[in-house]
């Protein structure tokens, strides 16, 4: 890949990008060692990526067995440069507190949705056996791909 067509995120772009609801995929490790990847929403706060899931999902079972994960995040940075890419990895902390999970879920669905849609999404999910996943990355790679429009 031609790295001359990349640049680092500017400080003011980083937070804005991570709060813009970019496309995000969580990768966990299946019992047989193969990757399991699934789209997720997240909340970025104090250098950590917070997500929720339910205890009946493959990603939860994988994390309960092996907490190592990666996130790949892609989206539009600005009109001039194009696509931002962030890849983070580390061990996820699981918080079984339903209250904590529902707080983060409410904030995730509240971003980027109309209030009516956010209320419906929250209502549809609030009775599920939800847990909070927090990733404080041990490794981060991030760049802006110049002249390339983001994947939609």
Give structural attributes.
alpha+beta; 152 residues; 9 strands; Pnp Oxidase, Chain A; 4 helices
Textual characterization of the structure:
With 152 residues, the protein is α+β, with helices and mostly antiparallel strands. It has one domain: Pnp Oxidase, Chain A (Roll), CATH 2.30.110.10. Helix content is 26%, strand content 41%. Strands 1, 2, 3, 4, 5, 6, 7, 8 and 9 form a 9-stranded antiparallel beta sheet that branches. A hairpin with a 3-residue loop joins strand 6 and strand 7. Helix 3 runs antiparallel to helix 4. The longest helix has 13 residues.
CATH architecture: Roll
Strand segment tally: 9
Distance linking N and C termini = 21 Å
> Segments where pLDDT lies below 50 for 5+ residues?
none
What number of structural domains do the residues give? 1
CATH class: Mainly Beta
Secondary-structure topology with pairs:
Elements: E1 6-7, H1 11-18, E2 23-29, E3 35-39, E4 43-45, E5 48-54, H2 58-65, E6 68-78, E7 82-95, H3 98-110, H4 115-125, E8 130-135, E9 139-146
Antiparallel strand pairs: 1-9, 2-3, 2-6, 4-5, 5-8, 6-7, 7-8, 7-9
Please summarize what this structure is:
The protein is an alpha+beta fold and 152 residues long.
